[in-house]
């Protein structure tokens, strides 16, 4: 009966499945794999994709590979750092997934918010490490991602300022030197606002306000509450013996 069922149903099912896979052409996966990092605009394109959490879930493996490549390119080409291992590792050899680290920190409001709310232990736990590894994870973020994220957000603010200026100028004749002057003024203004609103991360001189929160933030991690809950659970177990 098993052989008959396999012959009549399963074989034809998997044959049809293979045909449909061959016919399907996944443009999103092709685009991800085709990205090459030659300018920072290539980094912007990838980070814009990652802003969509459903997209990250669907193409996670491809994005992990490409994200590591991007981080390595940025460290080497923009920061002139060639000594940092990609991906970063703990002393025991366990690797840190930099894409997961980036997504989790952004979900909780960015570097500044995570630090102020003492969420690094929770981030470490979500990554598969222990609570006490939280400070090490914070340092890894600062060393590998903080400047990259700052530069990405700075460029986003700069582009919005330039787009706004272009809309205001639309239909109004203006000399080339005046347009250049106003463009520089917009860039300087966006940079000034960024510097005024941020507490910068370790190992960097600059960072940007982590204000684009896409999910509800976690509340501040409290070691005392966690320790109290563990003590109460231990007492309960002892009383039942």
Describe the secondary structure blueprint for this structure.
Elements: H1 2-23, H2 27-34, H3 40-50, H4 53-58, H5 60-78, H6 98-107, H7 111-116, H8 120-126, H9 134-144, H10 146-169, H11 176-196, H12 223-240
Helix pairs in contact: 3-5, 8-9, 10-11
Summary?
The protein has 241 residues and is mainly α. It has 12 helices and no strands. The longest helix has 24 residues.
Tell me what you see in this structure.
It is a single chain. With 241 residues, this protein is mostly helical. It is built from twelve helices and no strands. It starts with a helix and ends with a helix.
What sort of overall outline do the alpha carbons produce when their principal axes are compared? extended
**Helix content estimate:** 55-70%
Give average pLDDT, whole number: 76
Name the poorly predicted regions.
Answer: 19-23, 195-215
User: What is the rounded distance between the termini?
Assistant: 52 Å
By secondary-structure content and strand pairing, the structural class works out as mainly alpha
Helix and strand sequence: HHHHHHHHHHHH
Main beta sheet strand tally, sense and closure: none
The number of distinct helices, counting runs of at least 4 residues, comes to 12
Keywords:
241 residues, mainly alpha, extended
């Amino acid at each position: 009966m098993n052989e008959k069922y396999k012959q009549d149903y399963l074989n034809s099912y998997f044959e049809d499945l293979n045909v449909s896979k061959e016919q399907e052409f996944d443009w999103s996966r092709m685009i991800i794999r085709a990205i090459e990092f030659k300018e920072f605009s290539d980094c912007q394109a990838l980070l814009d994709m990652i802003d969509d959490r459903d997209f990250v879930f669907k193409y996670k493996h491809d994005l992990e590979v490409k994200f590591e490549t991007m981080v390595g390119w940025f460290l080497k080409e923009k920061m002139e750092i060639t000594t940092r291992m990609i991906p970063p590792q703990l002393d025991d050899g366990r690797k840190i997934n930099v894409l997961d680290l980036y997504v989790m920190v952004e979900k909780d409001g960015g570097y500044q918010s995570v630090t102020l709310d003492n969420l690094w232990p929770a981030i470490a736990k979500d990554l598969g490490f222990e609570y006490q590894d939280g400070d090490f994870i914070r340092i890894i973020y600062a060393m590998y991602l903080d400047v990259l994220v700052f530069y990405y957000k700075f460029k986003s603010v700069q582009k919005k300022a330039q787009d706004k200026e272009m809309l205001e100028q639309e239909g109004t004749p203006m000399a080339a030197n005046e347009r250049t002057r106003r463009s520089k003024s917009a860039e300087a203004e966006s940079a000034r606002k960024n510097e005024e609103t941020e507490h910068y991360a370790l190992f960097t001189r600059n960072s940007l306000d982590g204000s684009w929160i896409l999910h509800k933030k976690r509340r501040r991690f409290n070691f005392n509450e966690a320790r109290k809950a563990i003590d109460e659970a231990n007492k309960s177990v002892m009383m039942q013996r």
